[in-house]
Amino acid sequence: MNKKEIMDVLNFRHSCKEFDINKKISDDDFEVILEAGRLSPSSMGIEPWKFLVIENQELKNELGAVCWGGKVQMPTSSHLVVYLSRAAKELRFDSNYINHLLKEVKHLPEDVVSTYKGIMKSIEEARFKEDSDLEAYASEQVHIALANMMNVAAMQGIDSCPIGGIDRKAVEKILVDRGLLDTDKFNIALCGAFGYRVNDPGEKLRQGMDEIVTWIK
Ligand SMILES: Cc1cc2nc3c(=O)[nH]c(=O)nc-3n(C[C@H](O)[C@H](O)[C@H](O)COP(=O)(O)O)c2cc1C
């Protein structure tokens, strides 16, 4: 990709307010978007995310009805992703999930596992005594996955919209009632809608480089 192509992608991506209901993203294209999420960086490598990918129209409509930030985006999207982030007890250094991650995913030897857990324990004691602090930290990581997915969507000419304007309690109830969410293990971080734009976005307005960048040479 040359620099112009990179700039084109960055300018193409915008928070799309309405998608073309008749255009579906192909499985191949969406697979790459999901890989961008899966391969995203996360602090301490904890990968605290899970992506619920919703193509079911009835469910997209139901969620759109309770989310002020996604009223049009959710029902018109081709794929609506609910981004879940792991609950605090899942992320404690001695949890089953962390054990699984270190041993079965990262294949770390026993001595490295115990060093790693020791570091996690001291970070938890210093920064994450409260479950809510640990959960906010996990949710930050999930936002990175969404950002990567939106940019990789744009690389494929696919539009997206991050949706933080959601009624978490209402979304939680809808998903729990359908057996799609285990609230012991996951919280709802935010949503992301993907599809193809109906309208051209306006000009991208941003602060100038001189306002947001300080060079130290
Ligand atoms: C965490 C987060 C939550 C957002 N929530 C919403 C939302 O609920 N609905 C919406 O239409 N846009 C939402 N946005 C989009 C922002 O309004 C948008 O990124 C910003 O205005 C810049 O415009 P652009 O993305 O089109 O460049 C959200 C963006 C972020 C990063």
The CATH topology comes to NADH Oxidase
Gap from first CA to last CA: 28 Å
Give the percentage of residues in beta strands: 5-15%
- Measured as a percent range, the helix fraction is 40-55%
The H/E string reads: HHEHHEHHHHEHEH
Number of helices: 10
CATH superfamily: NADH Oxidase
- Domain count, please report it: 1
CATH class: Alpha Beta
CATH architecture: 3-Layer(aba) Sandwich
Tell me the layout of helices and strands.
Elements: H1 3-12, H2 27-38, E1 49-54, H3 57-66, H4 73-76, E2 79-86, H5 88-91, H6 96-105, H7 110-127, H8 131-155, E3 159-163, H9 168-177, E4 186-195, H10 209-212
Antiparallel strand pairs: 1-2, 2-4, 3-4
This protein binds flavin mononucleotide.
Flavin mononucleotide is lined by residues 14-15, 17, 69-70, 161-165, 190, 204.
Model description:
There is one protein chain. 49% of the residues lie in helices and 13% in strands. It has 10 helices and 4 strands. The protein has one domain: NADH Oxidase, CATH 3.40.109.10. It has a 4-stranded antiparallel β-sheet, sandwiched between helices. α2 (27-38) packs antiparallel against α8 (131-155). The chain is globular, with a radius of gyration of 19 Å. The two termini are 28 Å apart. With 217 residues, it is an alpha+beta fold. The structure holds flavin mononucleotide. The site of flavin mononucleotide has 12 residues, from β3.
